[in-house]
Each structure stands twice: as C-alpha cells, then as structure tokens.
Design a protein that fits this description.
The protein has 171 residues and is α+β, with helices and mostly antiparallel strands. It has eight helices and five strands, in the order H-H-H-H-H-H-H-H-E-E-E-E-E. A five-stranded antiparallel beta sheet has the order 3-2-1-4-5.
C-alpha cells in the first residue's frame, strides 16, 4: 500500500498546476450553476473534460472560478510565486480553501455546517469500495464519493476528498 501511495504521489507530481486546479475545482461547478455564475452548457463542457481527463484552458478556468483565483492570487503573492505554480495550488486546496470556508467568506457565511463540510477538502480513509463509489471516513463521519480520479484506490488508502469526489491518494 505504501508503494501505491508513493506511485500516486509521483503521478500527482507529474500533473501540472492547471490539471491540479481543475481536479479540485470541478466539483464546485454545480454550486456555480446554482448561483448563476456558470451556465449549464459550459458546465456540461467542463463535465465532459473532467470525466475524460482533459482540462480547460487557464483563461477559461480563471473566468469561471473567479473567487478561487482571487484567493489564489493573494496566496501566491504572499508565497512570492506565480499564481499558477503547483505549490501554490497545493497550498490553496490542502489548507487555504478550508480556511476560507471556516472564515465564512462570501456565500459560505450563511451556509449550513453540513454544506460547509461538504465543500471542504478532507483527508479520509477508504473503508469500502463498490462499483464506482468509495465509502470514506474522516472526523468520525462517513460518506460516499466517486472514485473517478482514483480508480485504483484500495480500502485503507487515505484520499483527499472534495464535494462528492476522491481527488487524489494522499501521501
């Protein structure tokens, strides 16, 4: 299992920042549709790209995920790096994203705690695998997520989850 986790980490290192951002951001797209910040046609395009492992252009990503990039650019400035730097993306998704939610910024302020928890990125252990779903446990909670991005994940692996997806096997 440790070898699989190491290999997954090496694979994620091969991923560029654009791919990394999209893997984490796409699960938020439904919320953008609900808030009329993304039309359904564009959502379907993004969904097809996500499922097929392709990525929209940087310009498209920045124009759709405006709030995320506003935050990422501030983080990149503090880190002294370009906002498309992979380390900036990892710092944002692994830490800062949850801090934004906990801080109640923007639409998160009035959101119920269950929705906020769903929006956060969590490290979770896979406790069951069936069909294309994983049942994961974190913070004494269990929920099902899609294995679309981690089809080779096994019971006992630790994955990062966001909305209804396991995004990557965590180191």
């Amino acid at each position: 299992m440790k070898l699989l986790n190491l290999l997954n980490c090496l694979e994620m290192d091969k991923v560029n920042s654009q791919e990394y951002f999209f893997k984490y951001a796409f699960p938020c797209a439904n919320v953008l549709v609900e808030n009329n910040k993304l039309d359904k046609k564009e959502f379907e395009k993004f969904k097809e790209l996500f499922i097929s492992g392709r990525v929209p252009s940087k310009e498209e990503l920045e124009s759709v995920f405006v709030a995320a990039f506003r935050r990422i650019k501030k983080l990149a400035e503090r880190m002294g790096r370009n906002h498309w730097d992979l380390e900036v993306m990892k710092e944002y998704w692994h830490k800062n994203h949850n801090e934004v939610i906990d801080g109640g910024e923007g639409n998160y302020a009035p959101a119920p705690e269950t929705f906020k928890d769903f929006c956060k990125v969590h490290k979770a252990e896979i406790i069951e695998k069936k069909d294309k779903m994983l049942v994961v446990r974190y913070d004494d909670k269990e929920r099902a997520v899609f294995d679309t991005l981690v089809p080779d994940a096994k019971i006992g692996d630790i994955v990062r989850i966001h909305h209804a997806y396991a995004i990557e096997i965590a180191p």
